[in-house]
């Protein structure tokens, strides 16, 4: 907690007790019929204590508002203004609006589509092109076997609580978060200790188990927000939309909750495509579906959204990155685990220091954190409202080596927009080792034959890479040799199943079997393709360790995964770009989006200053050259006043406006400075193109061309 806030809470508690004590003293004096001067003096002292108390209250309110109180109000007002503009100008709109919409589903309208496609184009340029990534495009409908192997069927859950009377569902952690925030912002009487406790709960919210979350909800007496009814204990709710593939209904599937699995299951082919070389990255942009429990916060929590994901495959023994030196000196806000747990705030840290101290697990992870920082800030995200927060111990999957979220601050607080995780070898192993048992257990043999794409009697395809040795190396290897003759005598037609199950044992299982056979002579062994245990005797299999010469090392690559929620980034970009400024007459506030040309939905508008055939013809000529130059633009030949036309395009974040006020030269106006230069009709399109393509800046243009100062062309 900030020192001033903490000391103010303490001072307020002390003043409150002093006011109560003095109040009692005044009442006692009155009861004892003390003299008037004595009572008046006591009342005066009480009043001055009350004044002091109210002054501390004001200071505390201001301290809390710095981040929350009044701040929350102005943030709310800012959001209202931004969202009204965004929805009115069709950046995005609730889907199926004429049917009163569906929570968590949004459409992008024309300028929204243009911004999204610019963001994605830049993503492709900044990541796919820069790193020669292999882009793929996989289906959204995914068979169950894939998501069972990845762990999503069993574990892709959020904790939910239900209103015990109405059955309305809520996300348990959101209720606790709202409770803590509200208490901190609105209840100035809570002690400094209680405030610190609530802040700790907020900082460690993602770390809480179902039991701990349930216990806190009970301890704080949190009830259903709409009805105040009691709540159930938290329980997991799977977020995937279930479907079935084909008409039989026998083949369960899901709408993918992320795009990553499409890449993992293609690893073998992509590795081959890459010349069997590591490291390499694959990338995918596509829709993801999550049946969020109670979507809120507009585009930030939706049930269908665009993800852009990178899976960078790397040798677990060498996580260096050849281009790491390009990002090593970047300095930005980082929020390591220890700082979060001890209640500190994010600090500016040099990326190279975070990696060399081991705060960030390895160079490749650091490299991507740096690249994500550059990507977001070049899009127009404010670097002071962007931080990289490390996952807390419980928040991070058990297999992950390290994980950082790029969080962007907007009117809703700090929002996770990009997750950057070193997921070790988990995903590739999960698909390699996913044994056919799962398929049979679900009784889906027929439906799933096509999904596995391989002989159903075998476990998954090994998703591994190999390092070729220049000289062969001697290694100790486990050899499992089923004695087929004995197995045939014992199991007849099932011999093949037993042989393959024995051969599929991993080292741990094989060594356990060897030990058991040596001590007991016989073990029970589960053969999943038979769906039962069979007795294995000592003479049926030989398990040994042998020295062998190896020419290569076969291993499962680690994967480093940056995963971008495109809608969240776009929404934060909208907020970071939005501002209002007074109209020239000062009678209204005009809305502006200061999008960099890179993301602006339209780069330029062209208007004749007045309705006049000659000017319209010039405007059409310029529009044609803009089209030829590939610059998105809008031509407006309506007779509306020029000020109104500027205001309309500022609201769409159009960076440049060309106004035709002669047949020889025209003005180009820059949106934020409102400065104008004069350029020839022939040059106009190329000047705009050079700035929007980033070949020069507006400042360069301002330096080179004559300035235009007529007020008539401005608002
Ligand atoms: P995750 O796989 O949960 O780490 O999510 C990857 C990214 O997807 C996050 O960093 C978010 O930017 C985005 N995301 C996750 N859930 C949603 C949602 N319900 N609506 C919009 N974006 C989301």
TrEMBL record:
Keywords of this protein's UniProt record, alphabetized?
A: Aminoacyl-tRNA synthetase, ATP-binding, Cytoplasm, Ligase, Nucleotide-binding, Protein biosynthesis, Transferase
Q: Name one GO cellular component term.
A: mitochondrion
Q: Does the keyword Nucleotide-binding apply?
A: yes
- By what name is this protein known? glycine--tRNA ligase
Give the family, as the similarity comment puts it: Belongs to the class-II aminoacyl-tRNA synthetase family.
Under the heading Pfam families, the entry gives: HGTP_anticodon (PF03129), tRNA-synt_2b (PF00587), WHEP-TRS (PF00458)
Top enzyme class, one word, equals ligase
Domain named WHEP-TRS: which ranges?
A: 11-67
Gene Ontology terms, MF aspect: ATP binding; glycine-tRNA ligase activity; transferase activity
Report the catalytic activity.
Answer: tRNA(Gly) + glycine + ATP = glycyl-tRNA(Gly) + AMP + diphosphate
**Enzyme Commission code(s) on record:** 6.1.1.14
InterPro entries, alphabetized: aa-tRNA-synt_IIb, aa-tRNA-synth_II, aa-tRNA-synth_II/BPL/LPL, Anticodon-bd, Anticodon-bd_dom_sf, Gly-tRNA_synthase/POLG2, GlyRS-like_core, tRNA-synt_gly
Chain ranges passing through the membrane? none
Q: Give compartment(s).
A: Cytoplasm
Note the superkingdom of the native organism: Eukaryota
Q: A biological process (GO) annotation for this entry?
A: mitochondrial glycyl-tRNA aminoacylation
Aminoacyl-transfer RNA synthetases class-II family profile domain residues are: 80-582
Lineage start? Eukaryota, Viridiplantae, Streptophyta, Embryophyta, Tracheophyta
Assembly, in brief, is: Homodimer.
